Structures are given as C-alpha cells and as structure tokens.
Amino acid sequence: MYNQYFYGLGSAKSCIRELFEYGLQQAAVVGKENVFDFSLGNPSIPAPPAVNEAAIDIIKNEDSLLVHGYSSAPGFADARDAVAKELAERTGTEIHGADLYFTCGAAPALIAVCKALNIDSNTEILAVAPFFPEYRPFVESTGSKFVYVPADTEHFQIDLKTLEAMINEHTQAVIINSPNNPSGVVFSRETLEKVAAILTKKSEELGRPVYLISDEPYRELVYDGVEVPWLPSIYKDTLVCYSYSKSLSLPGERIGYVYVPEKMTDAKEMFAAIAGASRVIGHVCPPTLIQRVVARCAYEKPDLEAYDVNRKLLYNGLKKIGYECASPDGAFYLFVKAPGGDGKAFSEKCKLKNLLVVPSDDFGVEGYFRLCYCVAKETIEKSLPIFEEVFNA
Amino acid sequence: MYNQYFYGLGSAKSCIRELFEYGLQQAAVVGKENVFDFSLGNPSIPAPPAVNEAAIDIIKNEDSLLVHGYSSAPGFADARDAVAKELAERTGTEIHGADLYFTCGAAPALIAVCKALNIDSNTEILAVAPFFPEYRPFVESTGSKFVYVPADTEHFQIDLKTLEAMINEHTQAVIINSPNNPSGVVFSRETLEKVAAILTKKSEELGRPVYLISDEPYRELVYDGVEVPWLPSIYKDTLVCYSYSKSLSLPGERIGYVYVPEKMTDAKEMFAAIAGASRVIGHVCPPTLIQRVVARCAYEKPDLEAYDVNRKLLYNGLKKIGYECASPDGAFYLFVKAPGGDGKAFSEKCKLKNLLVVPSDDFGVEGYFRLCYCVAKETIEKSLPIFEEVFNA
Prior knowledge:
Two copies of one chain form a homodimer.
Chain A: H1 4-11, H2 15-30, E1 36-37, H3 49-61, H4 64-67, H5 77-91, E2 100-103, H6 106-116, E3 124-128, H7 135-141, E4 145-149, H8 160-166, E5 171-176, H9 189-206, E6 211-215, H10 231-234, E7 238-243, E8 256-259, H11 267-280, H12 288-296, H13 305-321, E9 333-337, H14 343-351, E10 355-356, E11 358-359, E12 368-372, H15 377-392
Parallel strand pairs in A: 1-10, 3-4, 3-5, 5-6, 6-7
Antiparallel strand pairs in A: 2-8, 7-8, 9-12, 11-12
Helix pairs in contact in A: 3-12, 5-12, 6-11, 13-15
C-alpha cells in the first residue's frame, strides 16, 4: 500500500539517467576514454576559489551555533541583504533582502511558486518548448495542469501567436527559461517584450495577473556579450527562480532563491503563499553554511573560458560536418537537428558508437538531440570524427 | 490570485515564533538579561569539533567538483554506506547504505514518507499527543487526514486502548516521536512492544500493513542511561525519519535520512515511492558537503553534559516549587502542568514577567506548557524565583 503516482515517479528512470548509466557500463568494457558522454548537465569547472576560502573562513571564525543553527525560514537577513544588494546594482533596480526567499536550489523555488499559484484543479501553468522535463512533475504534483507552447524550431525563441492563443481563464503563469536548457538559446529583448505585451493584454482581459515565472539558473552563463534581459524590468508580475548551481558550480549544495518583486501584484500575499508552500515541502531555512558563503561571494563571477572553448570547438565542428544547430549563446548545451529527423533513432545509432546524446522528446520537441558540452576538451576532439561518421551513415 | 491555504500557512505566525519575537522586543526594552526565553528548541551546544575539522579537510583535500557537485538523488553511495555501518553496529541489525534515502533534514523525510503513504483522500495518518505541531500541515498537505490519539496525561506514554480503537480501514500509519517533543518523555520498550502488538493485529485484520513512522531527531539525546528502543527491531514495518539537527547540533545544515528496512513489506516499492515523492518536493540530492561531513562523523556522539546540568537544575527547581512535570528523560524539553489548569492563561501570566513558556495547545493537549532548557544556565537560575512567583500568584 503505497502511492502509485510517486512509485511511478521514483521507479521510472529518466532517459538522461539511463544514458549516463549505460555510459558507465560501457566505460568498464571499452575504457572510459572511448565513451563520449554528452548526456549530463553537471558543471565541469570547479567553484571559484573564493567559495572554498569563504567556507573555511566562516567555519573557523564565525560562531558555530550561528553558522550551523537554524536561520529564519526565508534565510539569514544579512545574507539576503548581501545578495539583494548585488542584484540591485547589476539590474539597476530596487531590490531588498526582504524580497528574496532563499531555497534549496531552483527546484524547490519552482515548486513553491507553482504551489502558490495553484488556485484549483483547473489551474494551468504554461511552459515553452523545449523545456526542462522536471517542469511537468513539478506542476502536476501541485494539482495544476502542465501545458506547453510548441517549439519555434526556426530560431528557438517563442511562438508568440500560439502562446497568446493558449492563454485562457485558467492560465496562472508562463514559465520562461533563458538561457535555455536544452537549447542553449537566450531569448532576445524583442521576444521578451512581446511576451510581456501579450501577458499584459491577457491580464487586463482576465482582470487579474498572468504571472511570468523566470527560471534562470543559467543567467550568468552567456557568451560573446549576449544580453540576458532582466525580466522584472520588462514585466512587473515576474517571479524569478534562481540557483547558484551553475554560476558558482555548486549544484550539490542546494542554494538558490525566489525573488518576489516588491511592485508586483499582491507581492506580500505571494511571498506569504510561497513561504507557506515551502513549509509543506520541507524547505524552510536552506543550508546555513552555504547561505553565508553565497552572501560573501555575491560579486563572484563564473570563469566561462573553458565552456566557451568547448562551445566553439563543438559548434564549429558540427556545423562543418553539416549539422544544424540552435544559436548557442548561453548555458552549456547545444540543441542539434537529428539527421534523418528522428531524435530517438539517432540517439540509438550514436549509442552503438559509445556516443551519448539525449534525444529531444522529453524536452517537448521531436527530431533533435541535446549535447552538454561541460566535458573535457579532448572528449570533443575525439568525438567529432564519430559525429561525422553517424551523420553520413 | 494565489493559493489561500498556502497563504494562510505562510502568514500565520506560530505561537512559538510570536513568543520568540516578543522576547526580542522586550529585550530591547528591559535588557536581554531580564528576558527568560524558554520558547525555542534550538541546540545551545555547538557541533562537535570533529564536524568542522571534517568540513575543512574535505574542502581542502577532496575534489571540488565531487564535493559540491550533484550526488545521486538519495545521496552519495559511500556516505550512505558509512552511516549505515554505524547504525547497523549500534542496533545489532543488518542495515545497508541502499536502505537509506538522505534528505534535507527530518521535515522532508516525514513529508516524503507521508506522500508515499497517501492512497486516497480518505487516508488517515495517526499521531500521538503531545506531538510536534508541523505534523498537521505535513500530513494535510499530502492529501491525507491528520488525526491524533489524545495524550496519556498520567505518564505521557501512549493511551493504547484509544490507539487501537482509532485504527480503521483508512489508517495508513502511526507517527511515533521518542524522545518526545514537547514532553521530553522516552517511550518505554513495554509501551512500544504493545504498540507493535496492536499494529500487527490490525495489519492482519486489514490484510495490509499499518506502518509505523518513527520520527527520531532526538534519538541520542537521553540522560541517565535510559533506553531508546530501536523500533525496526520491534516492528518490521517501521520507517525511520532522522535528522542530525540535534545529535550533531547542525539544524541549519539540513541533513537527515529516511531508513526503509529491507525486510519491511513492499520495501523496494516504498523506497521508490519515497524517491518519487522527494522529486516533487524538490528534495533530491541533499547538500553534498554536509553529506560527506556526516559520513565522516558517523561515530561522533553529542556532548550532553550542559543539557543535563540544565535539565536537573530546572526540573528539581520546579518540583521544589510544586510544579508537576512529565518524566524528563530525553530531548531538551520539560512539559509542565499549568497551575490553574489553563496553559494559555498561564503563558500570558508568565509573559508579564518576561518569562516565555509555550502553552501546550498546539501540541494537541491542554493545560500544560513546554520549556526548552537549551539556554544558558544563568537563565535558569535567575528564572526560578519568577517561576515561584507565578506559581503562587
């Protein structure tokens, strides 16, 4: 006697996880150096030295009862202030520590927001394909419906007409993820301003806000100076979900936040609803040592050099072979059109050569595959001839 | 437009939190030394030195990408093995790392278990009063009904007849918390064996297990050599929820686990359901540095000397005045009968003297108040004359 839905969620292996485990098995057979695993989006550059220096200094010199003791539910006030200060300076907007609710990473941030936005069993949360597959269980488990706007496969921006048509009386929010996982694309200011115009119009028609949920763990991972517009400045009813997983290479430490702009509709009530939702998912007071670390490292920037080298090497190599690829301006992914048009079949074909690529189906679009280029440079160099082989096979 | 239930949960202040904040206000008026705050259950002894030594050593000498990278969803295999090994030795039973699902503390452990045990909207989870007040939102938010066995106010063990009578076709589990918050009482082996006999009988009648959920963050906080029986050895269908918050004084670091005994009914399916539930509450891969720390500190024991001194001082002082108090064998709480019989009124009376005690109502029993004795010894010494004053007033 156990819950069948959760049993299903817990026993179903994701396609990515299966590929990863297949890679480990194959490595034991053919050697690690002959397996080319582009499946997992785990940062491959270490945390900046300042992170570990701060952690050691805090452990050695701050009061242990404070460092390891409970903070208040949304986090230490001074840590939230420090993070808000940097964010305010960077975005040129007014942001206070009290607007931030620290969370154990972006996942609980998104879940708390989705719970806070669930009004009844008809509530719909809209995502834009391609999307991070966990959005579906996150939304559905809160009692809302998960629906998505099909991908704009020309530019991997947003199909605005369809977005507009899909917003109805039950739509509470639209999830935006830019820089995008899996496409690596950054949504342009033009795209986002049009989204804001649509949401503003729909909010007026419906007489209540249609919120924007900006899931932005890759915010700082952009190349060639591409702009990542700050969404709350474009659309006031934006809830920002952030994680330090990628920017500080701390995915295991589970630290991030929800930012609830002071000027959004019902800001105080929304903050309280997020706090209440966090309580029943067991996310009050995120890990305290790391709270203090990110507060000290608020001005740290990731060193993207290694990712950028990989990005250019892989992107240019694939283009030369003849692959078509979405504009790789951010995150650490390439989203590539599958030769033959079937992402799953192509992934299987690659697997036979120990080349592990994730078919696009779980991301809500068919006919593509995702490559994560946070791997060793050598892996890319050695894999290109195989990419050429499977392209022509 | 936001979820009203979560708004309510997030905006309602707990009685404990209100008292604590009142204490801070009063401290600004009359001086910190004249406020006697027994409201908050925050450890007052620091983490053992080995904890910080391990953290620094791990940061300095282990691979940063491993230390701060994602672990698998239930935690690092080697860390789970290390914790299982000590637990197996201590309990004299067979426990493997694969039976442990690491969590961000006891709260998400309990929530995941309650979610895994929710079968339909009639599902009932039974607690025993007095109980930790968060059980109610934890259970109710999973869609189950929260019901409780009234307190045995004679010994604060368990009213077995009522427990037996309350188990029905919808009862999925009984939550046991020993050493108990708020009573400080440790359930005896005799009590627990009788509970096991009742659950065994009911499970046979119902043709399916009635599970026991053992919430035991205070497991190691016992005095005078009192036994805390290992429940899975008494009743095989026991799910253990544990946190290092109290035993290693790490409440802020959010690390604990669910133990799913290999021999329990549907153990594999239950583990999978807990994993699935953890996914939708955003608790996969608990904080990694602290995972590695608790693995290294598996054999560390808390230094209870300071708590024990406080316990005796406060308990003996109150008894001498004439207060009646539950047997204070564990945790760091005293549960005291309110003179006059009204816990709330007595708490208000104390407040006027800047003596902060928590009325028992939120714990599911009337007419008592809780004292948390993880405070400075001086606070206890200076408060006893005030306890005498309000007793006689």
